[in-house]
Amino acid sequence: MKNANFLLFLFLLTTTTTLFSQKELLQSGPMVGYSTMKEVLLWVQTNQPAEVHFEYWNTKTPTEKIKTASATTTKTDAFVAHLLADQLEPSQKYNYELFINNKKIDRPYPLQFESQPLWLWRGDAPDFSFATGSCTYVSEEKYDRPGKPYGGEYQIFETIAKQQPQFMMWLGDNFYLREADWNSKTGIIHRYTHTRSLPEMQAMLGGMHHYAIWDDHDFGPNNSDRSFPLKRVTDKAFKNFFPNPNYVYEEGVTGHVQWADCEFFMLDNRYWRTPNKRSDIENPEILGAEQVEWLLDALVNSYASFKFVVVGGQFLNPILGGETHATCAPEERKRIIEAIQKLKINGVIFLTGDVHHTELSEYKIDGGYPLFDLTVSPLTSGTHGKGADANPLQVEGTLVAEKTFAKMDVFGSRKERTLRITVFGSDGQEYWKKEIKAADLKFGKK
Length: 446
Fold this sequence. Notes:
The protein is of the alpha+beta class. The chain folds into two domains: 2-114, Purple acid phosphatase-like, N-terminal (Immunoglobulin-like); 128-440, Alkaline phosphatase D (PhoD) (Purple Acid Phosphatase, chain A, domain 2, 4-Layer Sandwich), CATH 3.60.21.70. Helices cover 21% and strands 27% of the residues. The chain contains nine helices and 21 strands. It is globular.
């Protein structure tokens, strides 16, 4: 009997030690990537080579678990794995589990995802919500500039998770490359890994879907442009950490997402950007002619109730200074606005970041409807509210010079589709709220 007890003790000890050691291999995540009606991408990063897979199940049939393929993480790919949950049905909710070296890794928060809804020709589009924001600086003292830490209030990610939106739309500067980072692949991967590993971020990563564009700080140095020599390295790193479903080009992060009756046109404002100091160029570009034409083609072919144009820097703000479109590429800005007007493209709303304050800009198209530009910044970086009230297009009461995110609720019947914007602080305090009806974003409205 004593021998049996001793053997049981050894078995339990060995099992507990093995489970603990496998858990220690987890670097960051898991994260839920894109969603479609038939597949969802699941992401995880380990800190050394390991075999990983997921198991998932429809919440309606919890005993019927489905296993993804397995993958072995490697240093070449930053020990990151992308695995597909590809036995899905539309309009369903799923729970999932992570396994490292065939040992389940428990997480102290819900791991869940959903397949996109099948609704067209069947009734009204479903209501949904998403969160959005920009500028995530996570301090690391030995690489930061001396003085007061620039990043803080990381609980904002826990606050977002508690709101339970379907997905997060990251608006750029999702990582902040430092001087020690941007000149090597090793440095770039270190910064991406350090930020992605933030403990306060993990529940949000594992419990909702994620889509992203970049801006200068996750692309390269401050105010970087097409001349940045390692842009192909950051391009690969970004796509490894944010595997959006349909990047438009082999290079750059231009992409497109549809959710219910809304579409997101995700633009790259760095890869083809004219250097700000090229005063010899008559019509400098931020997006580049090819990307602008893709945007206009996609917008004119869209039947979405709301067409969200997602770009790193402010688009509508006409004040000259900084890196706004009006400052750095005025003709390109004019071309897009005039095309929206000439082609009578309804429902356009810009989502932007970069400037370290939050505001809503409103621009009335001649003979048309009000164009809105919602700027949401920063999530955890320092705030820069100074001079922000100079924007003549700023909607009264929408300027916030604090760390913020926005929750966007889309709801209502087909003819009464409404977008509700609510801006929250890091602890969940509400700063302002505004509703915009799709019916009011149409040409020919009286």
